[in-house]
Amino acid sequence: MTAREPAGGLVPPDLDRSPESIGRYLEDAAHYPGGAATGIARPRHEGEVAALVRSAARLLVVGAQSSLTGGATPAGDIVLSTERLTSIEPVGVSGVRVGAGVSLDALQAWLAARGRWYPPVPTFTGASAGGVVSTNAAGAATFKYGTTRTWVDGLTVVLACGHVLELERGRVRAHPHDGFRIECACGTRQVRPGSYQLPEVPKCSAGYFAAPEMDLIDLFIGAEGTLGIIVTATFRTLPARPAVAMAIVPAPTETDAIALTGNLRDVAKATWANGDPQGLDVAAIEQLDRRCLEILREDGVADRCRVSWPNDTAMALLVQIELPPGTTAARGFDQVAAAFAPGAPVTPLGRFCQLLDRYHVFDHTQLALPGDERRAQHFLEFREGAPVGVNRRVAEAGRTTGDRRIQKTAADMIVPFDRFGEMLARYHDGYRRRGLDHAIWGHISDGNVHPNVIPCSYDDVVAGQEAILEFGAAVQACGGCPLAEHGVGRSPLKQALLRTFLGDDAIGQMRAIKRALDPEYKLARGVVIEA
Question: For the whole prediction, is pTM greater than 0.85?
Fold first, then answer.
């Protein structure tokens, strides 16, 4: 593979060193402490990116700064903001090439005007295209559509030397013994993919991707900006965005909720396999535990979103069901109304209602039918109220105690679904043994959860971190991954989980990949692996 000279002229972008501008970029969504930057650059094309890379000693690329691991928090770097890399152009019939700074919201709006859509969006749709590629972003939609990696067909990447790789899926694969050979005016680089084995779970964001004879494009997806700077990404898209019905389903026990989820998963997979237009097409299932529901009541979110549930509810599910394009609220209501009528036609929502009834949860289920955008938005706000409420309590604990060491303490772990119930019990037990208040939510259809500590003191943070390391070992023993969808970033805890999960030899292999592509550790120094 030969890297080319950059297009657009090697003219460095202006560097903004004003304290006001720098202050906007010192913290990402993880609120990782100690952010510092020497200036802000906002390049408009790859030539300006390349010129900046060639002149800078340390560089951190940021998009929406929605990282939950500190990966978008600068540590003395020049910050390269992708906010001006906003080109969008069609590629063939089903592809779209977007600048790294294009938000998923903007992408979906552009595609919708052309009768297409991009399915694998994470929970935060304000994330940028470059950001989701750099982290191999995933979310609830992963159950049906997979992670970002599945949908990336091309990348334009500026290497640490300032030369440019044009990557197209399927063009360059690793040689079984020699790996990749990348040539440019600076010389030849031999890059050997890791020999470590990653688990076969739907989500895995644990350092650099590795697989026998892997595609070169996959080395940069999920590398968190440490191996090259993504300037554009080419995504595959689908036609005709489906109509979506949403349901909030309260379950009296976690065991009941897991059993219902398993049944919904099986029915959905059968629908995908046989293509039945009247099948039950479940795209995603999320869950909120009892403590999450308490927080939603305490904070008034439940009342504001007009969501209710029985007092004995142990877990609530948020189910997304895809229906044929053009399905209206009226048609959806007819399907629900006829679900239990003798001789009623078989319909997707009718099947869903009948399945809920078998688990004795139909009477308390609340629906947002296609076209009822306000109701659907209430459901999404309800779901987001749990992490918002936990984060607010973490911040309050810091203010109340005056201890700035109190921070968000949470895991992001995935196991095969048939081990989900076992691990959920371990999360609860591990926190309770340490006397820790906690809330657990996540994407149950993938077996992926976020067990969060609600600390009252710094001692709770320390105990929570100990519990998370314990969970990581248990998840690995279950065939899962302790770093599912948020990446590693600068978090010492996440980096410790990575070392424990893959071992020192694997970390050494990642360092070798980093040195081969960025020998001066210029890009995102300290992210994923310590400098």
Answer: yes
